[in-house]
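Write out the bound-state structure for adenosine-5'-triphosphate.
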Amino acid sequence: MQAVKGMNDILPEEARLWLKFEEVVRHWLEAYGYRNIRMPLVEPTALFKRAIGEVTDIVEKEMYSFEDSLNGDQLTLRPEGTASCVRAALQHNLLYNAPQRLWYNGPMFRHERPQKGRYRQFHQVGVEALGFAGPDIDAEQIVMCARLWKGLGIRDVALQLNTLGDAASRQRHREKLIAYFEQHKDMLDADAQRRLYSNPLRILDTKNLAMQELVAGAPKLIDELEEEAIRHFEAVQAILTRQGIAYEINPRLVRGLDYYNRTVFEWVTTRLGAQGTICAGGRYDGLVEQMGGKPAPACGFAMGIERLLALMQEDGQVAVPEALDVYVVHQGEQAESMAWQVAESLRNDGMRVLMHCGGGSFKSQMKKADGSGAACAVIIGDNEAAANAVMLKPLRKSGEQRLVALQVLPQSIHELIK
Ligand code: ATP
Ligand code: MG
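---
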């Protein structure tokens, strides 16, 4: 049997780097006062259609949707976290008293063509600030990211920034875009033709190289922006500059989901080939209301964990395994019973203990102990058990094995580990 195409096993060697990553991420989020939230992997299909937008890559062709065979409900494996997070916040009234800083981490599912940095099950850390209107929270989220890259030892990521303005300017821009693309209809691919009237902004997001020149010459939203959106965007930039964050304004940055407005940003690296965006997000002031809540402005972002880890690995980063402290070798009935007791009590003292399981001669057990990387072996035969003592043998340092009384065993091991 094989795993589903585009869905990966993360084997123990690699999982170590995931654990290291998750630890850094958790401390980083705590440092900014974000609180963890966990949503189901499966949601009603309607949630994503409503939140992400019907005419988007995700909803049109990337969702794993199915019918619940018991009751006929239309369900979808979540392709992203923002919609679920907002749904959960509304369902449980989290925005009633105060704004919320929330984060989550977990698998997302999109039916895409698998390639390096693009999978069908992939993982995101998502960060959502719900109920914040000012440019300070946009800037804080970007500053946060910069701190994380440092904490992860990631270099060569650049920040791209844009503003999508508000509803009125988008409407004006939309009309100009349609007029422009209508003039060049013969150069539009099938996707673009289909979206010309339903979602022309999405055409700017095309990955079709043949259309790049056309897209580059399209009317720019920045020329349509209202005063307030401009002020908001300038305030975000002012904070970034003050905090020493370099950025590039990319007027073509539109993001592939419908819910964004005003500030949008992407962190991009040139070191992962075509799949260079490691983190993306922005403001989505209309989403809460659109999903049936009292209007509440919001801002968030998500990063692709596989891409971040690939970048760390590019840099030669590895997570060193936590070495075992003790390997417990035992033979005989009394010895086994004592081995259990010793192993559990050393674990009470905070040590990493591997107790030999599966029997075998002393010699073969010692071979396993040597190969385990443990600092020492605790060897117990029935003689030792009768004497309430064990043999302690250093495995990483030199030194002979010696008989040690149980009472002083933890102390003797600590000296060996030091
Ligand atoms: P792309 O343009 O690469 O398809 P996107 O705009 O669809 O990205 P978002 O929905 O903004 O991506 O997701 C945020 C981040 O999640 C991306 O920047 C990327 O790092 C990661 N990501 C998205 N889709 C995948 C995938 N299929 N496999 C791995 N990582 C992904
Ligand atoms: Mg995509």
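---
The mean pLDDT is 94.
The CA atoms of residues 2 and 348 lie 40 Å apart.
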